[in-house]
Design a protein that fits this description.
Structural class: alpha+beta
Distance between the termini: 82 Å
Largest sheet: 7 strands, mixed
Strand order of the largest sheet: 13-12-16-9-6-7-36
Number of helices: 12
Shape: flat
């Protein structure tokens, strides 16, 4: 039975008036007129009104005491979370190209929503364009033969070669599709640095950018649905598996010997601020001197783009502005894919800054409290000055030294980020601001979900230099409102158990569900399990996450990059240092279902079939509620999982007989026929489809008919299995031909 708050006195106005009138004959029998027009009755009504108001105030005491007791527990509420994004600056053409420095903390805006850069950016007088050598799969044989002849035409008696045809395409693409390096011919991304004005001497541009720092922004694929938090390493920390940047050799041309006409590159030092394969980050490179920023000058017209040379650019207006080429390639094999790359980039966070806000003067009393004007504030951003002397924020005043003897260590304060409450010491534990002293506060605050602006929304600044433009190539993510008191009270018992540390399986569920800014429909904790190995893995915890909504596939939602990023940043500081945490989405297994039923007389056939379809889909759904509630079970030792009933159970097989039982329970179904068809994605039928690991069923198609079950071929639209033919044909050749990358000249319509 739920606990209810007691009332000190629950009498209301009418009851108080009635009780007073009932006492009149006992004490004053001569008073016989009880009408409302009687002055005595009017006085009773006045005092009844005043008494009811007093009782209402008295009844607030239990609620106030309860909140005060909860306040003494010091259970924190989550403050608002600032959104994050990536911006890129661009310069306008100028006759005298010069770099421009954008300092850290520079403010840019999306309408009235302010953002601030988190690093310094050197905006060089160049434009950066990314290109990749996209493989052409299965080219026609006559096209391959043609390019073999073209390749031999400038190499003379060339050895046996197989041209690997590719197409030079810009990145990012217009459709926004992510780029996997495995889809390129050379596992690289090529960066062309272009002069802003075709009329400017390229030598002047090379001199202006020589030895300067070029910042390259990298955003991994936003559709990725997994992440790994390695033990002993914080999320997003700089990884040795970072992009490496190469540049052409200092020579102005290639050797005349055809066998030695292979371009050479040397490594330039690259410094990444994050693991750009998992989180959005930047890479700084120091460009070489101007005499080394050169292009090849003795290339054959048919040689452009062949093998290790940069992609061939057919647009002469672009090719004539190329200052130099840079090659970006991973230092180790990787399966990562990327959403965007660009130069002059900087990460930004959404925050507004308040400088020198005047607080009430010091009163010299213990435990003085002041409130900031615009809570909630960003944790760690508050600075206080007392008579122009800086005081420092601490986590707990109980450990602060006394104010006598005077020391800088005692001049401290604490901040409640959610409420904006600033508390000073009592003299014994922390110093008191002197009476009449002037208190000023500087801090930052975030606008929560208002900061989750779309791509291209950040396009202005109150201090943007002339000729400089700014834009965000990707949408901002991660902004969340502060936690309400009601939400925080629900976490009290859990907080006292886990203390913001991931130890038990219940801790993982509770803290994951408390991640700000995301709606989590389902969390599954698999302890000592690695999904890629499928075996026991001590020290590994796998979290299967299902978001409440996924616009890319609503019926089978997967956690995308912004969702994963928010959960990783929330869980990373709370996990044990030895725990390897794997965040994964479900491994959906496509199935086809065809069910035949007999509709009872008096029911609409179409409605009953739709009801059966709805019940089967709900039975196989990955989650039942759009937001998973907090677990009610007691915490268990890591190795067990709190019992939940939120969607299809992991490891449970899909059985045709169970689906028949679901159909039989639907209102309006007389019976379900036993000719049900259950098939995998490739069309192979089974009476039982097993699910292992993180596998969950995904309904590719379902048909319910009044009568025999419809053939699966009609439902699948002619889908079938794939052949196993050998593409290599007969015997192996006596000599392995050499593979050469050859660009394909795009066809052009001349009308």
């Amino acid at each position: 039975m739920p606990l209810t708050l007691p009332f000190i006195d629950d009498r209301r106005y009418d009851e108080l008036v009635g009780e007073a009138l009932a006492r009149i004959p006992v004490h004053t029998p001569e008073w016989t007129n009880f009408n409302r027009s009687d002055p005595g009755v009017t006085l009773i009504e006045v005092f009844a009104f005043l008494t009811e108001s007093l009782l209402y105030r008295a009844n607030q005491i239990p609620e106030r005491n309860r909140k005060k007791f909860l306040q003494l527990l010091r259970v924190p509420l989550h403050s608002s979370t600032p959104s994050r994004s990536m911006i890129a600056f661009s310069a306008a053409p100028a006759a005298d190209p010069k770099p421009l420095l954008i300092t850290e903390g520079f403010e840019v805006r999306a309408g009235q929503v302010p953002f601030r850069t988190t690093r310094t950016v050197d905006v060089l007088p160049v434009e950066g364009r990314m290109f990749v050598k996209k493989k052409i799969t299965d080219p026609p044989a006559d096209v391959v033969k043609l390019y073999e002849q073209l390749y031999a035409s400038y190499r003379g008696d060339a050895p046996s070669v197989v041209p690997e045809l590719y197409e030079a395409v810009p990145f990012p693409s217009r459709d926004g599709a992510p780029l996997a390096l495995s889809d390129t011919a050379d596992n690289s991304v090529w960066l062309a640095l272009l002069a802003l004005d075709a009329n400017v001497d390229l030598a002047l541009v090379r001199k202006a950018i020589a030895s300067r720092t070029l910042t390259i922004g990298v955003v991994p694929s936003l559709s990725a649905s997994e992440a790994t938090l390695a033990p002993g390493r914080r999320f997003g920390a700089t990884s040795t598996l970072a992009l490496q940047v190469w540049r052409p050799d200092a020579a102005n041309g290639l050797p005349d010997d055809p066998e030695q006409r292979t371009p050479t590159y040397r490594l330039i030092d690259a410094r990444a601020n994050a693991d750009v394969f998992s989180v959005a980050g930047t890479i700084d490179i120091t460009l070489p001197s101007s005499d080394q920023l050169k292009l090849w000058e003795n290339l054959d017209p048919l040689e452009a783009g062949v093998n290790g040379l940069p992609p061939a650019i057919e647009d002469a207006a672009v090719a004539d502005r190329i200052v130099t080429w840079l090659r970006l390639t991973p230092s180790a094999p990787t399966s990562a894919s990327f959403q965007w790359m660009g130069i002059h980039a900087s990460p930004v966070t959404q925050s507004a800054r308040i400088l020198g806000e005047l607080l009430p003067n010091g009163n010299g009393e213990p435990d003085q409290i002041a409130r900031l004007a615009l809570p909630p504030v960003l944790p760690g951003s508050v600075t206080i000055t007392v008579d122009n002397e800086a005081w420092f924020e601490v986590d707990d005043l109980a450990v602060a030294p006394p104010e006598v003897p005077q020391s800088a260590a005692s001049k401290v304060f604490t901040v409640n980020a959610e409420s904006g409450e600033v508390r000073f010491g009592d003299g014994l534990r922390g110093a008191r601001p002197a009476e009449g002293s002037t208190l000023r506060a500087s801090y930052e605050y975030a606008l929560g979900v208002e900061g989750n602006v779309g791509a291209g929304a950040i396009n202005a600044s109150p201090a943007l230099p002339a000729g400089i433009k700014v834009s965000n190539p990707i949408a901002a993510w991660g902004g969340a409102e502060s936690e309400t008191v009601a939400e925080g009270e629900k976490q009290i018992s859990r907080y006292l158990q886990h203390r913001e540390r991931l130890v038990t399986a219940s801790d993982f569920v509770a803290l994951t569900l408390r991640t700000p800014g995301v709606d989590i429909a389902r969390v599954e904790v698999l302890a000592n399990y690695h999904p890629e190995r499928g075996t026991e893995a001590p020290g590994v915890v796998t979290l299967m996450l299902v978001p409440a909504y996924d616009p890319e596939q609503p019926e089978a939602p997967l956690p995308r990059r912004p969702f994963i990023d928010a959960v990783c940043r929330h869980l990373d500081p709370r996990r044990l240092i030895t725990t390897e945490l794997l965040l994964r989405g479900p491994d959906y297994q496509g199935i086809w279902i065809s069910i035949g039923i007999k509709v009872e007389a008096g029911f609409n056939e179409s409605d009953v079939c739709e009801a059966v379809k709805h019940d089967v889909l709900a039975f196989l759904a990955p989650f039942q509620s759009s937001r998973q509630p907090m677990p009610d079970a007691e915490p268990v030792v890591l190795g067990g999982t709190p019992s939940t009933n939120n969607g299809w159970k992991l490891g449970k097989a899909v059985v045709a007989l169970e689906l028949l039982a679901v159909a039989n329970r639907t209102r309006g179904v007389e019976f379900a026929r036993d000719d049900i068809a259950l098939a995998r994605a490739d069309g192979s039928t089974f009476a039982r489809i097993d699910m292992t690991g993180l596998q969950l069923p995904r309904i590719l198609g379902i048909r319910v008919t009044n009568g025999p079950a419809a053939p699966l071929g009609d439902l699948m639209g002619g889908a079938g299995g794939t052949g196993n033919g050998n593409p290599n044909g007969g015997g192996a050749p006596t000599k392995t031909p050499r593979v050469v990358q050859v660009p394909v000249i795009p066809t052009e319509c001349r009308c």
